[in-house]
Amino acid sequence: MGKTISSTAQFTLHYYKPGLSKRTREIHGKRPRPAPSLTMQPASAKWYDRRDYVFIEFCVEDSKEVKIDFEKSKLTFSCLGGSDSLKHQNEVELYQSIDPNASKQKRTDRSVLCCLRKEEPGRSWPRLTKEKAKLNWLSVDFNNWKDWEDDSEEDMSNFDRFSEMMNNMGGDEDVELPEVDGADDSSPDSDDEKMPDLE
């Protein structure tokens, strides 16, 4: 009398041929496992430098459960983003120290903006990170980058006014972000100052 052999058994027996190593039979005799899904990834971000603040914008739409830890030499960001609630987490060892108590954050439907108050105002940051490391999720915000060290006295008053508005900025979505000096559409030189010379 004969017995019916299942397709799974036939598949396994097929690879138990003379000449095949045990390792080869193990590889081909087992069904491949699905690759594990990624449950966490860093959020893409862009940053730029100002006289008193360093700005970093995490580009996450429809963010939820946003948590930001401002430390003296470190910034930690995490949230759930998008319709699939993908978890994001970023940790940045900062180039210089900041004042955690004076640093702010602002969430919108498109991103989360962090304003880091420099511990040493007036000192430029050539990069955001402590080490010269290339982070694939971080880029320079050239639209808002400005060589503020060459600003005139008039620009200095704009920075002072901007700092006052930053102190009044909270996490409420109804609060409008303050205008950054040099990025005001009414300024005649705004278009010339947005993009730095790349050469």
Automatic annotation (TrEMBL):
Region (Disordered): 165-199
Gene Ontology cellular-component terms listed: cytosol; nucleus
Cellular localization per UniProt: Cytoplasm
Coiled-coil stretches: none
Residue ranges of every copy of the CS domain listed in the record: 40-129
Annotated family: Belongs to the p23/wos2 family.
Name of the protein in question: Prostaglandin E synthase 3
